[in-house]
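Help needed: design a sequence for this.
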């Protein structure tokens, strides 16, 4: 009996202790759970904030990537444009170098052209003196004008050369076609008003305005000689033909060159 009572008392004491202990544990566990819940909430908030930062960094990286691609594209375009401009600059430099070489060559050419022009004028003067005296005074004045032109600093070398070539062209024209013009012939100590006529450089004749006398230039003897009266009418017709006063026809004229050839 006594043993049973003792065991009952011990059991009751253990139950009481456990009850007290359970109450204490329950009391001690409640703040820990709240703390865990608070920490979990804070952790969730931190995760949300971290995700937001990650999303923000991702957007920033996408923007930076877009900007990088735009910069690369602009760089490629600028590089292509710079290559194009460089090609233009290289071509311009080559053109400038070519022009400079031409300019340098012009000075050398001028050094050779100027003496050539003087020689051309001298040759022209000599030709006029030896040729049949077609427009003699006019041609001599032209040669003198060319000599004067060469000493003028306000006239370019190209213009001087052009006028010399033009004088040569005029000399060539004297040797073509039928040409008549009026002038004065000195013969036998007299000045006679005449119609000059030349058939190219084949024949050079003069006829008095009264059509009673005619002369033929002998270029070998460098003098005028009287021609037979039988040539007066043909010469008159030839003069009219040159002035388009009558139709072209065959006429008989004296020619020294034909006699010399025989």
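Sure. Designed sequence:
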């Amino acid at each position: 009996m006594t043993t049973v009572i003792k065991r009952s008392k011990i059991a009751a004491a253990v139950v009481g202790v456990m009850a007290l202990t359970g109450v204490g544990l329950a009391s001690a566990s409640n703040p820990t759970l709240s703390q865990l819940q608070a920490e979990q909430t804070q952790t969730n908030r931190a995760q949300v904030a971290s995700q937001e930062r990650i999303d923000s960094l991702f957007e920033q990286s996408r923007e930076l990537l877009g900007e990088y691609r735009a910069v690369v594209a602009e760089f490629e375009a600028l590089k292509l444009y710079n290559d194009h401009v460089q090609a233009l600059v290289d071509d311009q430099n080559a053109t400038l170098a070519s022009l400079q070489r031409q300019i340098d060559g012009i000075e050398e050419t001028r050094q050779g052209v100027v003496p050539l022009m003087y020689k051309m004028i001298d040759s022209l003067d000599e030709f006029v003196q030896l040729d049949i005296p077609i427009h003699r005074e006019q041609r001599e004045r032209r040669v003198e004008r060319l000599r004067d032109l060469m000493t003028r600093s306000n006239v370019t070398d190209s213009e001087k050369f052009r006028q010399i070539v033009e004088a040569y062209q005029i000399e060539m024209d004297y040797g073509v076609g039928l040409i008549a013009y009026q002038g004065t012939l000195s013969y036998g100590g007299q000045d006679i008003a005449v119609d000059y006529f030349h058939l190219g450089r084949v024949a050079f004749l003069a006829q008095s305005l009264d059509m009673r006398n005619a002369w033929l230039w002998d270029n070998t003897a460098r003098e005028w000689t009287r021609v037979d009266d039988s040539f007066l009418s043909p010469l008159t017709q030839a003069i009219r033909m040159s002035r388009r006063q009558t139709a072209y026809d065959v006429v008989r004229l004296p020619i020294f060159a034909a006699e010399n050839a025989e």
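Confidence is low (pLDDT under 50) at residues 1-6, 8-29, 258-262.
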